[in-house]
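Workshop exercise sheet. Pairs work together: one partner reads the sequence aloud, the other fills in the structure field after running the prediction. Swap roles for the next sheet.
Pair: D.N. / O.F.
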Amino acid sequence: MKKPLRVYADTSVFGGVFDEEFQKPSRVFFDMVRAGNFSLVVSTTVADELRDAPEPVRAYYRELAKYLEVAEIDAAALDLQAAYLNAHVVASQWDADAQHVAVATVSGCQAIVSWNFRHIVNFRRIPLYNGVNMLHGFPVIAIHTPQEVILYEDEDEGV
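Structure field:
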């Protein structure tokens, strides 16, 4: 049996479940997590950011608790986050966004999914994140929206 893809989801994906624009692909993504297609990783940053979210979003996160791994924000992740900031991939006021990418990278995720188009899923920033990763001895990480990683019913899963 094929090992599920290890995917980090940031806070925006949980909120996306309740946003009309992002609801369908967010729900399909989490359905695929429940089905075992993805091994879901989050960090304590996600839990911290969800503290101020509406109750339905927090409840949805709690429902998914048995399907997710909470990755540590260790020294390696903090160092990589600082490297992103020092390289001006994002400005310091967006350090939590850099932390999501750093934790996903350090914890061995193959991909990160997000609806944050400004600081994470951004065609200008993705190569910068991955350039810093490579300079610091980490592999590149795929950065996509949930819509880009879900499998469709008519899709060949062998691809």
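Discussion prompt: The mean pLDDT is 94. What would you look at next?
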